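Extended Data, record DUF952 domain-containing protein
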Amino acid sequence: MNNIIYHITTKKEWQTALANGIYQATSLHTEGFIHCSTAQQVAGVLQRYFVGKTDLVKLTIDTLKLHSQFQYDFSSSVNEAFPHVYGAINLDAVIHVGLL
């Protein structure tokens, strides 16, 4: 599989990550992993979870640079496997930050 995955977050959460030197989504603490998407899944994720939200950024993550474990897990609600990062995301694994 391609080594590039994506994560949607807010500008504020990304600024916090830059200040802390590491990115940790709320889901890491509540679910044990950070939700990510493939390029083909980003549009659906935006439609399902981010409608009407502003100040969003899309993190482009190179999984070969991740220090934390990453794997694809099946989501029965949409019948697809999604990439999940099981730990914090080191900032040097984020190779691009794009505004949405």
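Summary. The first strand starts at residue 4 and ends at 10.
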